Fold:
Amino acid sequence: MHALPQDHTGVRVARLRRERHLTQQALAELSKVPYNTLTKIEQGKLAATPYAIACLSRAMSVEVSTILGQPYKAELRADELDVLIGPIREALDVYDLGADPDISARPIRTLREDSEGLCAAVRAGEIKRAASDVAGLIEETTTAAHLHGSSDGWLVLASLYRTSYDVATKLGYADLAQLSLVRMDWAAQRASDAVLGGAYQYFRALTYLREGKYRTGQRLVDLGLRTIGQADASRQRDVVTGQLHLGGSVMAGRAHDEEQAMGHLAEAESIAHRTGESPKVLWMAFGGTNVTVHRVSVLAELDKYDKAVEAADEIDIPNDWPKSRTSHHWAEVARAQMWTGKLDASFNSLLKARKTAPQQAKYHVLVRDTYASLEAAHRRLPDTFLSYGSWLTSQA
Structure:
């Protein structure tokens, strides 16, 4: 009995490969993914690493999202999240139309408070709440920003565009995420804020990280560091600089450049000693905890799964750390444990990812693919395991 439908990443890789009339051996040679690894990925016995997915996407000339099967439209429809995407697109389209005469905008201070509330909701894993409210706030703040023409208004609008980016990314709408970033940059330029400009390059780099375009992503990290260097000294500048280094560490890790990855981590760690834990500074969750969590990510990206598991065992995540980031961490730990054969521990980590931020975990690629691999490896599945798969694909 299978808890998940047979449409995991491996199945999609096999389907795309056959459509291109490639044998497994031919695809392995084109992509440089070892033949034995490719066959296990197609069978669902191994969760494909981001590096392998990037190599396979380039070899077959398809987008990474095509291999991943995102967004998960059936589940989004069942959870009534798909209907929220259209209004967000429409809100992003009115950015340059000036003030809407039919909208009576509240004071910038009030809009800022609401914007901060949405940032907090995303970090708490409350994706549906953020997706429900962000479109209306973008439209209202667009009017307010045009009416006032102040930096404060543009900064609030940039923050809301960032929230629409977060929502789109977590639900698998890559095109909407990219559009949100374009709008964020537009607002940041009007606010003349170098710190926000550096943050924009960080988020932009992450889009290339997800697409497996690591060279371009690293160039954007470098651009971000140059941009942030123009800002006045402040804790915000340090936080964004540190986060850019963390992004660069994962970028280099996925490109299997260990020296550069560890160099970025060392820079981030040094900055974290100055800033301390800063989870609410631009809502980036920067600090010592994020450095140690990224170390686990980097080790996994370098295929050093045993060391990643060891590093994860030494981390004590604070209870008040953002739930969205904690859930993502447990998903990464689950993948590393699965690759080292610690199947029960891997499933326990998936349970932690779900418990911490259920709305996020349900649409997380690592959660789904690791679950599929665990399912393929287990001959006898306990009821708790099967119910987890049913939850992932629930239609109500």
Remarks:
- The chain is about 75% helix and 0% strand.
- The chain has four domains: 1-69, 71-192, 193-321, 324-396.
